[in-house]
Each structure stands twice: as C-alpha cells, then as structure tokens.
Amino acid sequence: MANKLIDIVDVSKSFGNNLVLDEFNLYIRENEFLTLLGPSGCGKTTLLRILGGFETPDTGKVVFDGQDITDLAPNKRQLNTVFQKYALFTHMTIAENIAFGLKIKGKSKSYIQDKIRYALKLVNLEGFGDRTPDSLSGGQQQRIAIARAIVNEPKVLLLDEPLGALDLKLRQDMQYELIRLKNELGITFVYVTHDQEEALTMSDTIVVMNQGYIQQIGTPEDIYNEPQNAFVADFIGDSNIFSATMIEDRLVNILGVHFPCVDEGFGKNQPVDAVIRPEDIDLVKPGEGLLDGVVTHLIFKGVHYEMEVTANGFEWLVHSTDMFPVGTNVGIRVDPFDIQIMAKPESEDEEAVPIEA
Q: Is the dihedral angle over the CA atoms 317, 323, 329, 333 positive or is it negative?
C-alpha cells in the first residue's frame, strides 16, 4: 500500500458563525487520485484551500510528508492548485504562462524551454507556445492551466472543479486526459467536484462530504454499490430509497411487501432504510414479480429507457433497455443481492456524523 503523504488532523474552520469543517480527519496516500465529493457548502473547497495554503484552519494541522505545513505560505508548499477559472495571464503567450512559476524560482532559460516543450507535449498542445490564451478553446485553456501547474513538479496537484465550465463532451475527454496525466506523472491528485459521474470515472478513492463531515470513504465501486447511509445513496447516482422494516435476517418489508435480501445483523422488526438502484429492477409480467404496478412515465435516454412505475403508492424509478409504454401493467422483481439495507439515523444530526478516515 502506498505511503501516507498528507495527514489532515482535527481541522476545524468557521466563517463567522458558519462552521464549515468540524474536527475533520483525513489522510491521502502517495500517487492516489482522491476526490472530495459533495453538495455546495459541504466544505470540500475550503478543505482544498487549506491544503493549498490559501486558508488557515482555526484548529488542527496539515502534515505533508511528515512536516507540519499548516502555516506555510502557498508558494513554499509542494502542492499546486488548478482552479475552475483558469486564471491564465491574457497579456502573456502560452509559453510565458507556463514559464511564470519557473522564472520566479530563477530557473535557467534552457531549463525553462525544455520544461515548456515537455509540458505542452504532455497536454497534447505542442506548437501552441506562441499563441495567446484568448485564441484557445475552454478545454485548451484548462490544459494550459494544468501544464503551468505540472512544470513546477509538485508532489500534489489540487484541482478545484477544473472541468466545471466545459461542455459535456469536452468534460468527458478531459476526464480521460487527467487519468492519463496522473498515471504518466505519478503524482497525487486531490480533486474537488459535486459531479458524481466525474468522481466515479476518475477516482481511486472518493470522500463523500456533507455539512463539513465525511459521510463515507471508499472506492467508486464501494460508494456506488454499498452506500453507508441514505445521503450517500441519494447523492451518488439515481436511487429508490424506502423507509422499510427489517423483519429478520435476509428479509425486509418494503411498502407492505416482504422482499428477500442478503443483509444480516439488523435485528428483528427494526426500522431501516432500503436502497434499490433503478437499473437493478426487472419489469416482468403482472403476477410474476413481488408486486404489480403501472408505467406512468417514459423517457428515452439513449443507452436505456427511464420509466416511472407506480406500485403500492410509490413512484419506482426504473432504468431498462426494454421499453414498456405508459399505461402498461407490469410486475416488479428485484434480486435479493440488489437490495441495500442501511441503519436509520436516530436524528437529523446523525445524518452527518463524523467518520474516521
């Protein structure tokens, strides 16, 4: 397992009366692509700014490679930040933009020229050195911003929603570019986004945040397939979330119907939350499933059909490559393995409990 590179220890941060991070603990490994994922205001950008040195925590510390860097200036850290707004200097050429940090460090002309060539090749923009930023597309500008960060040879690249301003196709292209860059450079990426698909596509590790707390840490597969609470299930992808009752091990009551499941250890007749992903629901002939319903909405999504099926007073969201027209009577079938059971939080506050990394 890779070495621990960054250790965030008991970090708290408030702005006025607004507590943004509350005794936050997290470690980041060398060469990891770690994504901080959560809704606006969950504290992810504040955490990134604390890592970059642009904010100072009220309490706690940031340890980098064994050294406490909590009070170190941004330019003294082995971290570089790429922001959503590319912050390129419009009065400079692309080459001058890339060389900016190296000139400040007093590097030689030949070293700088070599680095510019290397960086432009790395982001697939060879020959663009003499152009100005305003002659480039959004995607090209973002790649230059990344090239400018890379030439300083940071151990860690901090990326704050860097693809947010790009259109969908370009965003997807840049996701693959970033994965390639990370693999080629062998540096640690810490990435902030509220886009679940982006997080699932690129990350080795996802940290789901809400209200300044960590909700869950895991691989993209873990987070998607085994959400630890209803917040994570709802935030990552589409979900059908039910207030249910665990009858006994491997049997849950959802909407008055007993569904076999694989979960154990919740006790008998206990209130739980149950999650069923839309793609895990099979629509069959009436009477062949565990309950019957009727298709009330139908949208073609390209790869699949998205349908709503009203059954037992609930609008079930269903994704299927088979099309069932509105008004069709159907049965609903779910494999026991595809029902995810979670303990109910005892209070609203518990929905945002701190979890040790």
A: negative
Same domain, 113 and 164: yes
* In a shared domain, residues 12 and 120: yes
- Higher pLDDT, residue 75 or 205: 205
The 3-state DSSP class for residue 75 equals: helix
Number of domains in the chain: 2
Rounded distance, CA 86 to CA 158, Å? Answer: 13
Map tokens 């019957």 to a residue.
292
pLDDT at 87: 74
Alpha-carbon span 258 to 247, nearest angstrom: 8
pLDDT tens for each residue of 275-298: 999 999 999 999 999 999 999 999
Q: pLDDT averaged over the chain?
A: 92
For the chain, counts of helices (H) and of strands (E): 8, 20
Asked if the model's pLDDT at residue 356 lies above 60, the reply is no
Expressed as residue numbers, the domain containing 43 is 4-225
Cα–Cα–Cα angle for 281, 283, 284, rounded to 5 degrees = 135
Is there a single domain that holds both residue 199 and residue 243? no
